User: What shape does this take?
Amino acid sequence: MTEVVYKKLAEALNARSMTYPSVPCDEFYAFAREIFTPEQAEIASNMPLNGATSEELAVVMKGAHAGHLEKQLEDMARGGTVRVKEENGKRSYELLPLVPGIIELQFMHGGVDERTKRLARLMKSYGKALKNTMMTTLAQMPVAGTSRARTIGVERDISGQPTILAYDEVMKLIDTAEYIAAGVCVCRHQGDLLDRPCDKPKNDKCMILGPSARFADDHGFVHLISRDEAKQSIDEAEAAGLVHVYANSQDRFIDLLCACCGCHCFMLRGVSRSPSPSRAVLARWVITVDDEACSGCGACLDRCWMQALHMEGDLAVRDVERCIGCGICMYVCPSDAMRLVRRETAPVKS
Assistant: This one.
């Protein structure tokens, strides 16, 4: 009986985002049970896509009492599975997707307690199962809705697909964010918990932007930071060779900006295994190399997580299909021979 409840939960999570799919399997059920009680999974499965008050949800769940639902929803908010919104004197609740949302809020606080360690192990097991089964499962999975996109001041729409941002775009995003909250890097923190540490910086390297930052701070998952503190963190990430990845949900859930490494980030690791990484993400930029300025030092090669650069004689050469346009190779070029230009074939939201 409980397996049926968690299978319905998987459908509800996928309706909100497929960035990290919820595939019904033993490993998913084990992870979900750690975060949702059976009653909470049933509540989550009945929540409208656009959220609801406890009274509205009681109408959907015939026979449920609004007061009891509100208590459960508040517990779920404290557990990082639903977001609370206050508008016009109404307190409503939205079920978060796995990513961006639930998984981040389980780890951004940087906890090293036994439950967080257990979650890291469960996530690792589910990640392996997902890798082995998703290609045959996804085509059969019912999805009740799709994610939308919103426009930010970088000339194009950003959809739910992970988007690689150049440094200047990140700074513009920070300048326009009403609130910014930061926590530890989710993937590198999981690595620490699983005795697979990363030497890249992790503190304040995952950020939540906009109204959700207030919610996450209020519930103790992250802490609010200033624009100057956010920019300082981005500069540190740039120096460390981290890729700026933005997951946007039109503020339906959480807008997440992460500084990612290719050794621990589940998304970048998957993208790097693709024969065409630039097609696996929204990669709107591509690097160009000025042959006359290139000194042939090869410093950029080790910098690239996608292996998009190689040497031909004394010149660095870029593979346009493998380049995701992050620009971190430019940081170490001593002759200023590298530039980012618009990728004309980049996906554009109509």
In short: Residues 114-137 form the longest helix (24 residues).
